């Protein structure tokens, strides 16, 4: 996005005052559109409202749980209620029907459990899931929260963050050893995230659970940003990581289809 666009939009809105009841919604819309934590000043440049009004809106939305302060105390990012709202929209029946059809077809092709996960505040959350038909399976039902740092979906999300936010996570996150293969060294995890960002997919080589491997790719929004992740996992008794990576083309095709489905208007 060009730098002059927010100010041009703000000027347009100054000429056409915003209805009072729409202001909180438009502020949330701009925060999500920016895609990174934003200050009230940055939001004001886009909305064209009085500074005092924007600060008041931010305070109210923070009190109600729609936005929360970032670690620096100045910027705001989506809160639990806004994230729950977004997850609810993604789970709406019309969209979910098509999404589960794509996910089911992928699970049949690969022969293993496939998942869609979205980033929460401190974990990835399973939004949709189609189970393998094999009797030996790993139980991680819809709604399960899994760590960022030791899962394929979580590492995919972390790799999509800008450098500043990625470094902030690495500095402050609690890295607990889940298995003998869990990456708990911050420098090693930083290098793993760089590799993930460069190659466009993430792996979990028995880092979250002993005996389980997983591969994840991003599902992008209309601006190319990570909206969710698509992944599959399997027990090592059936599939090695090398064999799992052979399914990357199928995984990427399905992710592209899911992205288009999410963006479709009808």
Secondary structure blueprint with pairings:
Layout lengths: L3 H12 L7 H12 L5 H8 L3 H13 L3 E3 L6 E3 L1 H11 L2 H18 L2 E7 L4 E7 L14 E2 L5 H9 L2 H10 L13 H14 L2 E4 L6 E9 L5 E10 L5 H5 L2 H16 L3
Helix pairs in contact: 1-3, 3-4, 6-11, 7-9, 8-9
CATH superfamily label of the largest domain: GAF domain
The average pLDDT score comes to: 84
Basic shape: globular
Helix percent reads 40-55%
CATH architecture heading of the largest domain: 2-Layer Sandwich
Chain oligomer state = single chain
- Note the total helix count: 11
Strand order of the largest sheet: 5-4-3-8-7-6
Low-confidence stretches: 1-11
Written description of the protein model:
The protein has two domains: 4-78, Winged helix-like DNA-binding domain superfamily/Winged helix DNA-binding domain (Arc Repressor Mutant, subunit A, Orthogonal Bundle), CATH 1.10.10; 84-263, GAF domain (Beta-Lactamase). Helix 1 (4-15) crosses helix 3, helix 3 (40-47) packs across helix 4 and helix 6 runs antiparallel to helix 11. The chain contains eleven helices and eight strands. The strands form two sheets. Strands 5-4-3-8-7-6 form a six-stranded antiparallel beta sheet, with helices on both faces. It has a two-stranded antiparallel ribbon with strand order 1-2. Helix content is 48%, strand content 17%. The protein has helices at 4-15, 23-34, 40-47, 51-63, 80-90, 93-110, 152-160, 163-172, 186-199, 241-245, 248-263; strands spanning 67-69, 76-78, 113-119, 124-130, 145-146, 202-205, 212-220, 226-235. The protein has 266 residues and is of the alpha+beta class.
